[in-house]
Write a structure and sequence with these properties.
Number of strands: 26
Number of helices: 46
Strand order of the largest sheet: 4-3-2-1-5
Structural class: alpha+beta
Oligomer: single chain
Helix content: 55-70%
Length: 1467
């Protein structure tokens, strides 16, 4: 390692393991280092590790340890520390994933959206994640057909179980067997604790042997409910669940049973009442006899030739028997659960491909290490050997893939430790009596041998162990103990206490225990202990070695792992307090050593630890050879020349990367630092020169400015003196002129005032005279007109009243006549028809009379209001005249004063006196006219009172007429009821008649038709809707039509079939557009209007049209969807504007619509008379029935469906293009590395990928406009497309760290500029607010490319730079950002800490805290929006289709077209 002053290094520290420092001096062979904690430390150079020269405290770290410039123990530790501080808990070390437990919920990392992002993504492309490892294993299994395994290791509390659950969750998701989240599970009431007599865990013997913790955020009740819910999901019934919890509760109570010495020698009994209580509960929960349970624990049966011998057990043996029973029951229960879950998840034992998950404890080393730690460390030794071989193979695979020369890499092989534990070939000189010389023996074998002898103890075991391995390098004898031994594992030395080795290795199965529980009344407990044929033996104990069984299981596991492709996840516990945001370096470093991570680093260091892609290498070290950067060299050639210029050796050039030996990257960094130092000195020299020159130029300019100012002052003084002299002369001239002009103007004004007063007085006299004449004439005319109008209206009202009386009289006569004729059915129908007509005429006339009277009232009110206005105007004129008189009096007084003043100068005093006398006369005339007007006003008021009385009388008469009409309506209703009864009777008679012979039917029909044909005929019968299906009320058909029912239905069916064929042709053919209007939509609408389909109560033509459109949409053609979007929207607008569900009809028509009788149907055929008297709005409104309204709703759904299909297809086509646009291509990065690196000069980047998006948008726009899609829909589509672009780019930016770079930000920003140009060219009509839809990605990219991020506060970032982004999104971008171009830094530590505090607070309030954006799949418009946005369409001027001649039923289209052309010609 090349060390010099100022170099940054890592130095060992007792508290922090490693601490950063800077070399400040060399003292002999030692190095003086100034640490970050302000301490100075002397250290040997060999004990120092290099540190990155441009590394800072707030750097976010790298996502892969192999990307570290200096791959060493300290760098790995602090890289994890930095990422953990930013909540980046996952980090790669090659293919190994390191997961640090955050001790807090991070739901945004594990939602469904995140799983979708990692699904199918190449390994290493996105940020490190457990989903990436799971996806890589799944893809490898599916593509390569090889079984996979995922090994999850770590110490207790490191998060192994959670990681395993996340892997299983992801594999279930990608495998298509995700559980339904909303599966209903009965909420369990937490009363089981009382039912099973359970208390706090610390009160049970089997649970209080270690400490118990209360974890924050973990609720036992919620975990219990989740457990019950999980049992339901895997298929465990409620009865089985109750049995499981009963068994567990029994085990807990069994552990609290204590024994005391019995009355006999070497016997035992229950200690106290508390133990009796727990014994009874255990027996009740096991559903067995309590005495038998006590007997199986305190006695043992020995079988002899003479018979069975019952042997009592002492207290220790009874406790051992109790524990053996508990352990046996728990083991059987655990095996049952495993088997049940495997069956539930559908595990196929014959499957050739599978993914295995291994969740195992990591290496353990405590103060007291017993048999459990020995077995765990033995398994970890096996797994570490497998891990070393895998890492070594991965290194070889990397070298082979890059095609570089490599030699054998040495790594620590722990085979000798494994041999020591599981086997060891004894030498021929070793002396052991009971063991064969050829039999392999190890620690486990010695332990099993010791367990076979009843009198063996841990001391004899330790003695044999040291005798067999006196000088083994991995085995040592403990210093302060005769029985403890120390074993050197790969992770360090561990001292084991053998006190309990023999007891824990013995796994006795007591036959009495099995027999007792197999006879339990609980079927579940009895099923755990099936009865088997017992072999006769002298003891009821069956010995089984735990260690031997563990070794066999481990061997089977290793065979399985060797047949699979492994993936490693190392879980790390950051602190021993289980608290978030706390990182203990020493503990983590120990776990990294135990997990083999540092061993993997060491293997990597043995080869080529530093690997850089050619583009990254050239970007960073290209400044060492500036003369080569200007040429067009290949990246490989540039890399080779850079290394050879620096005289470096032993490097290798691969296919895509350069491989450097350890320490070579330090030499390159030091040379780079020297070049940058020299460049900085050159810049300083130039800057100082510039500053000095600037100071000199500014001083010279200041001197020149002072001289100019002095000269200017002197010149200004001379000029001021001359200007004052000239100004004095000018002032004198203008003062004299002003005085003379002022005197003249004063005299002129006096003369003008006198003249204007005289002329105004005479003009006012003439004007007042003319105004009086006009007012008198107007009053006379209005009064005469009012008198004649009043007389006419009175005469007209009298006539109308007489007509109403006479019609009422005639109606009464007619009603009496109809009552007499009501006994016959046909006559009653005829009468009812006539009455309805007359009633409709009466209602219509009544309505007209009401309207006429209303208009008369309005006219009267208008006339009265006019007269009142005239009176008010006259009053105002009178007031004005009075005011004018007063003003004239005032003016006269003023004139008198003026006359007195000018009497000596003027001779007009006589005329003024004459004018005054004239004014007095005028005043008298005005007073007389005012009195006359007051008299006229009183007369008009009297006439108004009379007219009001007449109006009241007329209104009373009208009310009487309305009452009579209501009586008539009631009578008509009663007649309708009678008619309905008669119709029922006729229906019965007709059925009987139809059942009689044909001759009888024909005679009856002819007679009936002759008698009632005139009564049933109606003009509307010929205008019956063609698509109206027969209803029960429509079965009464006039027999005079001359057609039978079968022939009529056949003709109707044929006509409907022809109509269907024509509509099918219109739907399937591309009819195009005429004048921008869709021909198909207009043709279909005109056909439906002509066939009166909208007025039908039952029809299938609408369903046929919708089905035809849906069939056409299935055709794969890029123009189909835009074409039918135009047609369906146009047809929908025509229906929306021309159909109405509640028309403006009379009361009779509204009642007849609801009736089912003949008058109701006749009334339905009649149109409202108000359409023919001026109440129509100019548009042909149609009274829509229910099928038409339903058709409009279906058509609305079709428009929304077509719009959604177009939008989804666009997103599918756009997604692969956006995948290339989020990251700058390699050519762009190389170009950026070779070009000018000044921050102020913009870089020119290729836009090939962005050009493809622009071409895609252009083709989309042309396709939509060719099919005349309304601009409203184009604007909505373009807006949603740009929203999708914003979401896709923004989410990719937050998920991929290589995208959060400065150069990539420039690349994306240039692409967004191209999109902005496209939006500007498209215009607001088509683009709308598309540019605003890109707010998120625009602000994120803008944040990436600013240079002064460290100077920005959080408020400035939130409100100025990124107002649309959330704090979580800003935090994500800030922590993932790295500058690959100028070396700028991200935001400051204070801003990061502030954001982390904000996020911690928000996590407690917000239900979802994902930083990703969700796509909006809603339809952004409604039917009303379409109606308002699309212009009016006139279907009458659309040419008929070319194939019209083939369909006779549609020839009316050509006739309508000819009529339109004739009208146009006439116009």
């Amino acid at each position: 390692m090349n060390l010099r002053k100022g170099s940054k290094v890592w130095v060992e520290d007792k508290n922090l393991a490693w601490v950063g420092g800077r070399i400040i001096d060399f003292i002999g062979k030692n190095v003086l280092v100034d640490t970050a904690s302000a301490n100075k430390v002397l250290a040997l150079p060999d004990r120092l590790f290099p540190r990155e020269s441009d590394e800072d405290e707030d750097h976010g770290g790298v996502d892969d340890m192999t990307k570290l410039t200096y791959l060493n123990e300290a760098g790995v530790l602090y890289n994890l520390h930095r990422r953990y501080a930013l909540n980046d808990i996952y980090t790669y070390t090659g293919s190994i994933l390191i997961a640090v437990n955050p001790f807090q919920k991070l739901p945004h990392l594990y939602n469904v959206h995140m799983m979708e992002q990692y699904k199918g993504a190449p390994f290493g492309e996105l940020s490190p994640h457990v989903f990436a490892v799971a996806d890589a294993s799944y893809r490898a299994m599916m593509t390569e057909g090889q079984s996979q395994s995922i090994l999850v290791s770590g110490e207790s509390g490191a998060g192994k179980t959670e990681t395993t659950k996340l892997i299983m969750q992801y594999l279930t998701y990608v495998g298509g067997r995700a559980a339904v989240d909303d599966r209903t599970v009965e909420q369990q009431v937490l009363e089981d604790a009382e039912k099973y007599k359970l208390d706090h865990p610390s009160h049970f013997h089997y649970l209080n042997q270690s400490n118990t913790y209360e974890l924050e955020g973990v609720c036992n009740a919620e975990e219990y409910i989740k457990t019950r819910r999980s049992m339901d999901i895997v298929g465990i019934s409620h009865e089985e669940q109750e049995a499981i919890f009963r068994t567990l509760a029994a085990i807990l109570h069994l552990g609290n049973v204590e024994f005391s010495p019995g009355k006999e020698h070497d016997s035992s009994a229950i200690k106290d009442q508390k133990s009796h209580f727990h014994m009874q509960l255990a027996a009740d929960l096991f559903m067995c006899d309590v005495n038998l349970l006590m007997a199986t624990m305190s006695t043992r049966i020995i079988q002899t030739r003479e018979g069975n011998i019952v042997k009592a057990l002492d207290c220790n043996a009874a406790v051992a028997s109790r524990d053996a029973l508990a352990k046996t029951v728990y083991a059987r229960l655990f095996d049952w659960l495993v088997d049940k879950i495997n069956k539930s998840v559908g595990q196929d034992k014959t499957s050739r491909k599978q993914i295995g998950l291994l969740d195992i404890y990591g290496f353990e080393c405590f103060k007291q290490n017993s048999f459990e730690q020995f077995c765990i460390n033995f398994a970890n030794e096996k797994l570490q050997q497998h891990f070393n071989e895998h890492v070594f193979k991965m290194e070889q695979e990397e070298y082979r893939k890059e095609e570089i020369n490599w030699s054998y890499i040495e790594f620590i092989d722990n085979q000798d430790v494994l041999d020591l534990i599981e086997k060891f070939l004894l030498s021929k000189f070793a002396f052991i009596v009971l063991v064969d010389l050829q039999k392999p023996i190890g620690v486990i074998a010695l332990l099993d041998e010791a367990c076979m002898f009843p009198k063996s103890t841990h001391k004899t075991f330790s003695m044999k162990l040291f005798q067999n391995f006196p000088s083994h390098p991995r085995l040592e004898k403990a210093k302060f103990s005769e029985t403890d031994f120390t074993m050197s594992h790969y992770a360090g030395k561990v001292t084991y206490q053998t006190d309990t080795f023999l007891d824990k290795n013995r796994d006795y199965v007591v036959v009495e225990h099995c027999n007792l529980l197999s006879s339990s009344k609980c079927a579940f407990v009895a099923g755990l202990f099936p009865s088997t044929a017992e072999e006769s033996s002298r003891s009821s104990y069956k010995f089984s070695s735990v260690a031997f069984r563990f070794k066999q299981q481990l061997q089977a596991l290793m065979e399985t792992l060797n047949s699979t492709e492994p993936h490693y996840i190392r879980c790390v516990k950051p602190n021993s307090f289980n608290r978030p945001h706390k990182f203990e370096n020493i503990s983590v470093l120990h776990q990294l050593r135990c997990g083999g991570v540092l061993e993997a680093v060491r293997i990597s260091l043995a080869g080529y630890p530093t690997r850089r892609s050619y583009s990254e290498f050239v970007d960073r070290f290209g400044l060492l050879v500036p003369e080569l950067m200007s040429g067009s060299y290949d990246e490989v050639i540039l890399t080779d020349r850079i290394l050879r210029k620096l005289k470096l050796e032993n490097f290798q050039l691969g296919r895509t990367k350069v491989f450097l030996r350890a320490g070579q990257i330090g030499i390159l960094d030091s040379r780079r630092a020297e070049v940058l130092d020299n460049a900085a000195k050159c810049i300083q020299h130039r800057l100082q020169t510039y500053i000095a020159r600037k100071v000199f130029i500014s001083s010279r300019r200041a001197a020149i400015a002072v001289q100019a100012y002095c000269r200017g002052c002197l010149a200004r003084k001379i000029y001021a003196a001359k200007r004052e002299a000239s100004a004095a002369l000018t002032i004198q001239k203008y003062v004299r002129s002003w005085l003379l002009r002022h005197a003249y103007l004063k005299l002129l004004a006096s003369a003008i005032v006198i003249q204007s007063s005289v002329r105004g007085f005479s003009s006012r006299l003439r004007f007042m005279h003319g105004m009086e004449n006009r007012a008198a004439a107007l009053i006379q005319g209005n009064w005469r007109m009012y008198k004649f109008r009043t007389a006419f209206r009175h005469y007209q009202a009298s006539i109308i009243a007489i007509q109403c009386r006479w019609r009422q009289k005639l109606a009464k006569k007619e009603l009496r006549r109809l009552k007499k004729e009501a006994n016959e059915t046909g006559a009653l129908r005829l009468a009812k028809t006539k009455l309805e007509k007359q009633l409709e005429d009466l209602a219509f006339r009544l309505h007209l009379e009401k309207r006429l009277r209303a208009s008369n009232e309005e006219a009267k009110s208008v006339e009265i209001s006019k007269l009142q206005q005239i009176m008010e105007s006259m009053k105002l004129e009178m007031d004005a005249a009075k005011l004018a008189t007063i003003n004239e009096c005032n003016k006269n007084a003023a004139l008198q004063n003026q006359v007195q003043i000018l009497s000596k100068e003027k001779s007009a005093l006589g005329r003024d006196l004459f004018a005054q006398s004239e004014l007095k006369k005028e005043n008298t005339l005005l007073k007389s006219s005012m009195d006359a007007l007051e008299k006229k006003n009183t007369a008009l008021e009297l006439e108004l009172m009379k007219e009001r009385k007449d109006n009241k009388d007329t209104i009373e008469k009208l009310q009487e007429v309305e009452q009579k009409c209501s009586l008539l309506q009631k009578n008509v209703q009663s007649l309708q009821e009678k008619l309905s009864h008669l119709e029922d009777e006729n229906h019965i008679l007709r059925q009987k008649a139809l059942a009689s012979p044909k001759g009888y039917r024909s005679g009856f029909a002819s007679a009936f038709s002759d008698k009632f044909s005139g009564a049933l005929s109606h003009p509307a019968a010929d205008r019956k809707p063609g698509f109206e299906s027969p209803t029960p009320s429509k079965l009464i058909v006039p027999f005079a039509q001359g057609f039978s029912e079968s022939r009529h239905s056949k003709l109707t069916a044929d006509r409907q079939q022809e109509n269907y064929e024509f509509l099918s042709k219109c739907i399937k053919e591309d009819l195009g557009f005429r004048g921008g209007k869709p021909v198909a939509a207009c043709t279909i609408y005109k056909c439906l209007m002509h066939w009166r389909a909208f007025e039908s109560e039952r029809t299938t033509i609408f369903d046929y049209i919708i089905a035809g459109i849906n069939d056409v949409l299935k055709v794969e053609n890029e123009n189909i969807l835009p074409y039918w979007l135009s047609n369906t929207s146009a047809l929908l607008c025509l229906l929306q504007r021309n159909l109405r569900s509640n028309g403006f009809v009379s009361a009779v028509a509204q009642r007849s619509t609801a009736s089912t009788g003949l008058p109701g149907r006749i009334a339905q055929g009649l149109k409202s008379p108000f359409k023919y008297i001026g109440f129509d709005d100019g548009v042909l409104h149609v009274e829509a029935r229910y099928p038409a309204i339903l058709f409009k709703q279906q058509l609305t759904a079709s428009v929304e469906k077509i719009f959604g299909l177009i939008r989804d297809n666009l997103k599918k086509e756009l997604s692969p293009l956006l995948g290339f646009c989020i990251q700058a291509p390699k050519s762009a990065r190389v170009h950026a590395g070779k070009s000018n690196r000044s921050p102020g000069v913009p870089q020119t980047l290729p836009h090939s990928q962005w050009d493809s998006i622009i071409k895609f948008l252009d083709s989309l726009m042309s396709r939509l406009r060719e099919n005349h899609v309304p601009s409203f829909f184009i604007r909505k589509l373009i807006t949603q497309v740009f929203s999708f672009i914003n979401i896709s780019l923004f989410n990719s930016l937050l998920l991929r760290r290589e995208c959060c770079t400065f150069s990539n930000g420039e690349y994306v920003k240039s692409g967004l500029a191209e999109l902005e140009k496209w939006i500007a060219n498209a215009g607001d009509e088509y683009a709308g607010t598309s540019w605003h839809e890109l707010n998120y990605i625009r602000q994120a990219v803008g944040f990436l490319v600013i240079h002064q991020k460290r100077k920005k506060s959080l408020d400035e970032i939130k409100h100025d730079l990124c107002p649309a982004l959330t704090v979580r999104q800003i935090y994500r971008i800030s922590t993932m950002y790295w500058d690959d171009k100028y070396g700028t830094q991200s935001v400051s530590n204070e801003v990061v800490a502030h954001m982390r505090e904000t996020l911690d607070k928000d996590d407690q309030k917000v239900t979802t805290n994902s930083f990703l954006l969700d796509d909006d799949l809603s339809i952004p418009f409604s039917t009303e929006d379409i109606d308002m946005a699309i212009p009016v369409i006139d279907p009458s001027d659309i040419d008929a289709p070319s194939f019209l001649s083939e369909y006779p039923n549609a020839r009316f289209l050509s006739q309508n077209q000819n009529e339109v052309r004739k009208k146009l010609t006439v116009a």
